[in-house]
CoA transferase
Amino acid sequence: MSKALSGIRVLGATRMLAGPYVEMLLADMGAEVLHVELPGGGDDSRHFAPLINGEGSCFLASNRNKKSITLNLRTPEGQEIFRDLAKISDIVVENNRPGTMDKWNIGYEHLREINTGIIMTSVSGFGQTGPYSKRPGLDIVAQAMGGMMFMTGEKDGPPVRTGNAMGDFLGGLYATYGTLSALYYREKTGLGQHVDAALLDSIIAVLENVIPNYVGLGRITERMGSRIPGIAPYNCYLAKDGYVAIGVSSNALWKRFVEVLGRPELYDDPKFNSPSKRVENVEEVDSITQNWVAEKNVNDVVELLNEAGVICGPVYSVDQLINDPHVKARNMAPEIEHPIAGKLRVSGITPKLSLTPAGIETPPPSLGQHNEEVYKGLLNFSDERLKLLAERGII
Amino acid sequence: MSKALSGIRVLGATRMLAGPYVEMLLADMGAEVLHVELPGGGDDSRHFAPLINGEGSCFLASNRNKKSITLNLRTPEGQEIFRDLAKISDIVVENNRPGTMDKWNIGYEHLREINTGIIMTSVSGFGQTGPYSKRPGLDIVAQAMGGMMFMTGEKDGPPVRTGNAMGDFLGGLYATYGTLSALYYREKTGLGQHVDAALLDSIIAVLENVIPNYVGLGRITERMGSRIPGIAPYNCYLAKDGYVAIGVSSNALWKRFVEVLGRPELYDDPKFNSPSKRVENVEEVDSITQNWVAEKNVNDVVELLNEAGVICGPVYSVDQLINDPHVKARNMAPEIEHPIAGKLRVSGITPKLSLTPAGIETPPPSLGQHNEEVYKGLLNFSDERLKLLAERGII
């Protein structure tokens, strides 16, 4: 069955997370992705702890549906082979330090000369321009400088980074958005272009109304745990066997909520009878809610509130998450079978497309698994040349 | 100058954040976006606190580059007008409760009958299918059930939601990725489809290696503040005038780091001479780092470490962020001028496209600002019909 991006070829000079994630999003939708790795060790994330039967779980999580080829881009011959592959590709993805691709003679200007339709997508910590562009990036620095860490965490505690590498994922998602926009434009005009995504920019892009609130009202958004400024109760509460998240976003829901609590008199109590009153008295609102939750199990809280139409949900750990019936029904923790790591589960695919659903067709490849297929099939290399290139460490 | 999505028309029956954000991403790239709002009050986010000169800052943050039209989709005549607009549109975006569009006779099947190429993109809390699909969604519940809250926060503290509505942004980003993939497929085949994005799915999609680590190793990813499992130091440290984020991701960088600290002997100290040793002794590594940082200002720490090539950055609050020279150079907090709210700044555009750069052409529209332009220009309504529709509360 054909997929949305069937027929598109992607050449990826990436490693670790943000770049490989762009490749994976394109591969999930049906693009043929050639993940270019250094001969010998390959993508660093293959070796990054923790390992599952010797395979880095970071690599296992972000490289399904791809082909792996080895190629040493630090050698002139490797660069020439890369250019030959770029000639027959639609998209090049890379997440090297800005300037590196140019130094290797495979920057956007080099590739455009040989393929005017090529789209090159670069993801980096700080972007291709600006005073910090040459600095190496790390997720924690993007979250810190992008303003997200400052506003995440407990009110009286230190700033907190999200438990996942959110900067890398957002960088990859915005890069993909730009790449697909450029692909549409290329279909109309035949012209490719360079897409410049940055982890730092991507964090700033999701700051919601934080910048206008400061510029328009002088308001600096501070840490406030799981609360938000405009709604109460809206927090995470401790039940007997775990945490539960509850948000009561209107007067109508507040009415249902206090009825479930068996305290209908709170509905029109002047301390609580409007969203702004409840926010003003948030400590009392949270304390009433916490006391009610404390006596129950998470499942009971969720069931009682859902029956009444109040929005809530358990704070899942990963073991609970993958066993939830809805998560199963949406196939959001699908199984993959890897020849060495064995049977695993990974994060599933979103969104769901009705006509061309994305899917997991192949597990993450072993290093250089597709050298023969690609070099012989696409570039017509002889067995002898392949052997020589391997001996010389070029592939 | 033409933009990547120039010529594409988007009809949006959305409100609040996730749906309007999809519209904005398409509008930034040049699509003509008609944001459909309820006559009278319009998009709820127009009234959601805080207000800037009476304009909701959430609305101001997520609706640039769009046109606003009013239309009551609860009336048969409003639905008929919506169908007439869908006939001449490329994409419909909606974030109503699943089932609502069908109830209004403007679901995907209704629209496909009159426009086989239409792409309909739905964003909801739990998606269009599965046992919880009809439940209302909220960002905090997606972050909770998606497994992200469980692993975000201090080790001994409660789970923490990110300070922004990350579920809405991720839901919007994945929806856009699916929409643009479907748009490419439509260019090739003429066929549209339904794109089903969910906040919960989107949080699960960014869990990194959390699911394989559990399934393959029995490891449940726990909260650990700003630390990560594989690297130390990698944390946020308190200087004299604020916090700074530092990540030392290799032995080479560890060498440079301890030289800056004036303690080169730590480089081959058996307690610290490999990444795994440093992780094993993370308390001591963090304490050495914290003690050094504590005596300095943030700027001094950042300058000293950057000179040595060690990856670090300040934990910016919004006021610091918008004044950073790199953020300014990348135009990531651009000014907009709104007729009522005045001069503001908002989050900027990412990624940067070399040939068709996205840009902010118009500020968020007032309610129904483009009724005449759209209803007269696109649907050839007479002045009289417009007047009658307005009197009857249909537009």
Q: What stands out?
A: The first strand of chain B starts at residue 9 and ends at 13. Chain B touches chain A through 153 residues (CB under 8 Å). Residues 234-315 of chain B form a domain with the formyl-coa transferase, domain 3 fold (CATH 3.30.1540.10). The two ends of chain B are 33 Å apart (CA to CA).
